[in-house]
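Let's practice the habit of predicting before peeking. Look at the sequence and jot down your guess about where helices and strands might fall. Then scroll down.
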Amino acid sequence: VQLQASGGGLVQPGGSLRLSCAASGSISSINIMGWYRQAPGKQRESVAQVTSGGTTNYADSVKGRFTISRDNAKNAVSLQMNSLKPEDTAVYYCRLWTAARGIQWGQGTLVTVSS
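Done guessing? Here is the structure:
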């Protein structure tokens, strides 16, 4: 299984971006997909997760601004990011967890929030 992420870029503070990630191949119907991010000099942190059943979890720093969604038929997950702040600048990584294969990471996509 490979995870292909897209959608990063440069945006001004207050702007919006949408990240997308699709898993190729067959994956377990029970899984968790989500997004992590890593800012320069900082540890990777969880941003948002969504289970195959639709339960979501968000980091406090993004609640009310980011929305995670998934398409189980396409094995895809998206992250709609609104009201972006400079502190959201980071490399964003798509992550997939399944019981069979554990954690798998996609390649990072850079989000830069700057005027």
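How did you do? The mean pLDDT is 95.
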